[in-house]
């Protein structure tokens, strides 16, 4: 089975989509090197797929430690991850959790045993704030963005003014997980991204719609404020046995009913620090 398909966002940037589970990965190619942002759920061989797209040597960077972003990492000798998510990487790097996640996403679909990437020991290289990857004509800067997880990061493609946010800030940001920071703390992260706004013009997401305007950052910041003020719709939500609330009501396609871009799923006991 072909687990991946891809399309060119623009010259040098390829969006790779997991066919079954829907998450996006990104291959950014400079003149000398490339970088792969995230590795998906770990179904099929993303390494083989990527090497069919580029002949350049490349590094693998992880936006955070959740299973749908790290599953293919075990195909590599080493990957970069923020130290704040190393424990989460080790917790999520197991076949049992992957199977549980897939059952939740795919309901009745089951995978052949050989299609799972086997877990093995690999080298975890530190991915820290301000670290630069020089690809040759293109530069990727690491931006620490805690909230969704303690070690979440974004990647700024400086020359193109593009920000890859992983799950740190998106159209349906999960902040109800055990590892998620309180809304009050998370808003500081989003405020930091807002302060950088002149440095990026577009956002590339890991779920939903790949490319969205920079205004999603303001929408998520305002959503944090509305949660703290109680100005929310509080639509009940359940995910893998966890109960939470969607802050803003959705339209039939999953976007916000009020037309704004950023939404948050949260717990009422995880609002204030």
Describe this structure in words.
The protein is α+β, with helices and mostly antiparallel strands and 273 residues long. It has a single domain, classed as Metallo-beta-lactamase, Chain A (4-Layer Sandwich). Helices cover 21% and strands 28% of the residues. The strands form 4 sheets. A 6-stranded mixed sheet has the order 8-9-10-11-13-14, with no helix packed on it. A hairpin with a 2-residue loop joins strand 15 and strand 16. Helix 5 (183-195) packs antiparallel against helix 6. The radius of gyration is 18 Å and the shape is globular.
Helix content: 10-25%
Distance between the termini: 46 Å
Q: What's the CATH topology name? A: Metallo-beta-lactamase, Chain A
Note the total helix count.
6
Enumerate the strands of the largest sheet in spatial order, edge to edge or round the barrel: 8-9-10-11-13-14
Query: Main beta sheet: strand number and arrangement?
Result: 6 strands, mixed
Instruction: Give the number of domains.
Output: 1
Mean pLDDT: 94
Please identify, by name, the CATH architecture.
Answer: 4-Layer Sandwich
- The assigned structural class equals alpha+beta
Shape verdict = globular
The stretches of 5 or more residues where confidence is low (pLDDT under 50) are none
What is the CATH homology-level superfamily? Ribonuclease Z/Hydroxyacylglutathione hydrolase-like
The proportion of strand residues reads 25-35%
The tally of strands reads 17
Order of helices and strands: EEEEHEHEHHEEEEEEHEEHEEE
CATH class category: Alpha Beta
Radius of gyration: 18 Å
